[in-house]
Amino acid sequence: MPVVQVDQVHKRYGPLEVLKGVSMAVERGEVVAIIGRSGSGKSTLLRCLNGLEPIQSGRIEVAGHVLDASGRGLRALRKDVGIVFQSYNLFPHLRVAENIMLAPRVALGLSKRDARARAEATLAQVGLAEKIEAWPDNLSGGQQQRVAIARSLAMQPKVMLFDEVTSALDPELTGEVLATLEALARDGMTMLLVTHEMAFARRVAHRTIFMHQGLLHEEGPSEALFGAPRTLELRQFLAGGL
Ligand code: ADP
Ligand code: MG
């Protein structure tokens, strides 16, 4: 059973059709990169997978939760699907520990002690155990993004979605966040990541999907997709042309 199963999903914003019949599946433990031009629908696809955007038709099943155009089943789904965006959005008035403990406390009803234990464990996972009492403002952008990842992991999601999580960072800070993602991948986390980091996608993702104009235009094992792109559109994209 795939962890993520997407069948013929159509998504419109008013007259603009952004997803034009997207189908895909992600197996447990698989790391899938999504690449493509700005505006091709990558973020919309991730947002639909997490139920942040309703779909007009088709079917999405994530971690056993079914989403269709009715919008039922959202709450349960979001507990099992973590999503991290380009902007990390930590709560500035809460310390790192409380940032991470909040959702497990509120959404899962964990005790303070259990939530704290999760904060400690997930911070260790992203290599920031010593920052548990820090204020977000006192962390670098890369560290804040790693805390945001830890915060998502604290819900013990079955799948993690990452939308250009290094794009807002200075180049010297992207490496530490990519290393965190790579460690997660190595630990067997099921991951879908939208990224501009082509070398990273090629090396770390088992499979890469190239989105073009609201469709999955080409996909395959990362090494093959980057090494021998079949379609003109992907070749042009990888060559950096418009
Ligand atoms: P990508 O992440 O690949 O850059 P997006 O999924 O963000 O692409 O956007 C795909 C298309 O949908 C773009 O044309 C964008 O302008 C449009 N779009 C995205 N979000 C909205 C929205 N909330 N309302 C209207 N149009 C949107
Ligand atoms: Mg986007």
Automatic annotation (TrEMBL):
Which cellular components does GO assign to this protein? Answer: plasma membrane
Name the SMART domains on file. AAA
Keywords, alphabetical = Amino-acid transport, ATP-binding, Cell membrane, Membrane, Nucleotide-binding, Transport
KW Lipid metabolism (keyword) present: no
Task: Determine the domain of life of the protein's source.
Answer: Bacteria
Q: InterPro entries this protein is in?
A: AAA+_ATPase (IPR003593), ABC_ATPase_HisP-typ (IPR030679), ABC_transporter-like_ATP-bd (IPR003439), ABC_transporter-like_CS (IPR017871), MetN_ABC_transporter-like (IPR050086), P-loop_NTPase (IPR027417)
Pfam annotation, one family: ABC_tran
What is the annotated localization of this protein? Answer: Cell membrane
Topology in the membrane? Peripheral membrane protein
Keyword Cell membrane part of the UniProt annotation: yes
ABC transporter domain boundaries: 4-238
Q: GO MF annotations for this entry?
A: ABC-type amino acid transporter activity; ATP binding; ATP hydrolysis activity
What family does the entry list? Belongs to the ABC transporter superfamily.
Entry-linked PANTHER family: AMINO ACID IMPORT ATP-BINDING PROTEIN (PTHR43166), GLUTAMATE_ASPARTATE IMPORT ATP-BINDING PROTEIN GLTL (PTHR43166:SF9)
| Record-given protein name | Amino acid ABC transporter ATP-binding protein
Species, as recorded? Plastoroseomonas arctica
